[in-house]
Amino acid sequence: MSTPLFSFDNSYALMEGMSMPWQPAAVPAPRWLHLNRNLAGELGLDADALASDEGLAVFAGNRVPEGATPVAQAYAGHQFGGFSPQLGDGRALLLGEVLDARGQRRDIAFKGSGRTPFSRGGDGKAAVGPVLREVLISEAMHALGIPTTRSLAAVATGETVRRERPLPGAILTRVAASHIRVGSFQFFAARNDTDRVRQLAEHAIARHDPALVGREDRFLAFYEAVVQRQAKLVAQWMSVGFIHGVMNTDNMTVSGETIDYGPCAFMEAYDPQTVFSSIDTHGRYAFGNQPGIAQWNLARLAETLLPLFHSDDEQAVAAATRVLDGFGERFSAHWLNLHRLKLGLRSDGADDEADRTLVNELLQRMHEHRVDFTLGFRRLSSVLRGAPQEWLTLWGDAHAAAGEWLAHWQRRLTAQGEPAAEVAARMDATNPLFIPRNHLVENALDAASESGDLRVFEHLLAIVTDPFTERSEHAPAALPGTPEQTQGYRTFCGT
Question: Residue 410: which region, alpha, beta or left (left: phi > 0; alpha: psi -120 to 50)?
Fold first, then answer.
């Protein structure tokens, strides 16, 4: 008797009313695109067994693994500000939950495995390009130290997916701390089902904040924990130039992980109004709007939890408001700490406002002169190594504006009294050299989709999952795209 591929230990699937049992659709000709052996090890899984024919059949949805209880999850959500009371997993299935090598509970879920009761007229499928985009971006985010869902496997299905044009089909296997979203709570709140909201909250607390279990104030404390996690997460996005692109409430997790890599992208020339998503026509989810949108989404979560905070409506609202009002301060503190690290600054005894002004002055000048965000920080360490020209070349003919700020920064560093080499090394461990440059991502996805050539994808994946280490052979991958490549660049949801 063979050993099961997964040792499932399911809990969410047992919660009545929060999901519907469902099966993935069979596919005709599965083929490997990617298997994340490192992640398999973290999950306590046998990577060689997963790479077998049986594993391929499982990841293609042609065989349900032993112990799995596949379900499509129900949730609602505000999409671009408009509320939809009925969303749910339109092309995803939660296979089950496992305990990883550290004893942490993790979801194993499909994306692109066919129609479900929540598909709302869609085909429930995914294409090779969007699936491999999620692999690239989610694994790059993990390498950058940002909480994120992970990509365990990607399989081509042998089917044709109909979008604007025919595309080869694929299925992603996604790993998450959980798939519980703000929209999960909204689903039951919209139906005035306070009992289910309470049940979901108890489940989420036990899963993500077990220290709160049994506390009288556990629901408000849980809400505060979610606010804290999201404040830190969005500050981390802002520190690397990441634009989520579709910050709907059904795409905000209570675990504090980044989820749903649809029209996401990394900013190149610094501009707070940068938007890449083809469906974000009014810039609701522009780079600089992300903190405000996160707080707006968290207000929607508070609305669902108010009956649990206090039996008196006014007291419940007052308690939620106190917590929500703290988001800005928490975000601001995380943002400042992250940008201090990027500039090599110590916080001990530092003047917060002076440092915040120093960072903002740099960003303002980078915006005015369209300096690449990633290299604008990364190459600063070259100044400390006696090669300031490497950084100054990013500024074109604006050396005066750059030099004025540089003098302020160097005076601030001098006051720390640290050896320049130590500061430079610390900055290089904080500021990535390699991000998933948009033109490189598109090249990799085009090669995989058009000709089935995975070599470009695999090469780029290896680069972006080691983002801080300088390697001369990969130097071109650190450079922004040409004006022809970046002008009018748009990303798509892939649904």
Answer: alpha
pLDDT digits (tens, 9 = 90+) for 326-346: 999 999 999 999 999 999 999
Q: Which two tokens stand for residue 154?
A: 């990607």
Residue 68 lies in a domain: yes
The domain boundary, picked from 119, 151, 180, lies at 180
Cα–Cα distance, 30 to 113 (Å, whole number): 12
| 332 part of a folded domain | no
Of 45, 39, 37, 59, nearest to 8 by C-alpha is: 45
For 449-492, what is the HEC assignment?
A: HHHCCCHHHHHHHHHHCCCCCCCHHHHHHHCCCCHHHHCCCCEC
Q: Which residues pair with 73 in a beta bridge?
A: 19
Which sign does the torsion angle of CA 181, 185, 191, 195 carry?
positive
Q: Which residues constitute the domain of residue 417?
A: 345-428
State pLDDT tens for residues 117-149.
999 888 999 999 999 999 999 999 999 999 999
**Buried b / exposed e along 388-421 (16+ C-beta atoms within 10 A):** beebbebbeebeebbeebbeebeebbeeeeeebe
| Backbone dihedral angles phi then psi of residue 269, each to the nearest 5 degrees | -60, 130
Q: Where does a domain end: 383, 401, 428? A: 428
Catalytic option among 107, 250, 260, 372: 250
Per-residue confidence (pLDDT) for residue 13, from 0 to 100:
67
Q: Which residue has the tokens 């074109």?
A: 396
In a domain? residue 168 = yes
What would the pLDDT profile of 369-413 be if each residue is shown by its tens digit?
999 999 999 999 999 999 999 999 999 999 999 999 999 999 999
* Coil, helix or strand at residue 151: strand
Number of H helices, E strands in the chain: 19, 12
Percent of the chain with pLDDT over 70: 99
d(C-alpha 54, C-alpha 66), whole Å:
11
**Distance separating alpha carbons of residues 288 and 234, to the nearest angstrom:** 11
3-state secondary structure of 403: helix
**Which amino acid, 159?**
E
Q: For tokens 């409430």, what's the residue?
A: 249
Domains identified in the chain, total number = 2
The SS3 of residue 102 is coil
250 is catalytic: yes
The label of the residue with tokens 């309470």 reads 198
59 in any annotated domain: yes
Strand, coil or helix: 335: helix
Q: Name the burial class of residue 166, with classes exposed (0-12), middle (13-18) and buried (19+) by CB atoms within 10 angstroms of its CB.
A: exposed
DSSP assignment of 338-388 equals HHHHHTT---TT--HHHHHHHHHHHHHHHHHTT-BHHHHHHTHHHHHTT-T
321: left (phi over 0), alpha (psi -120 to 50) or beta: alpha
Closest Cα to residue 345, out of 406, 416, 407?
A: 416
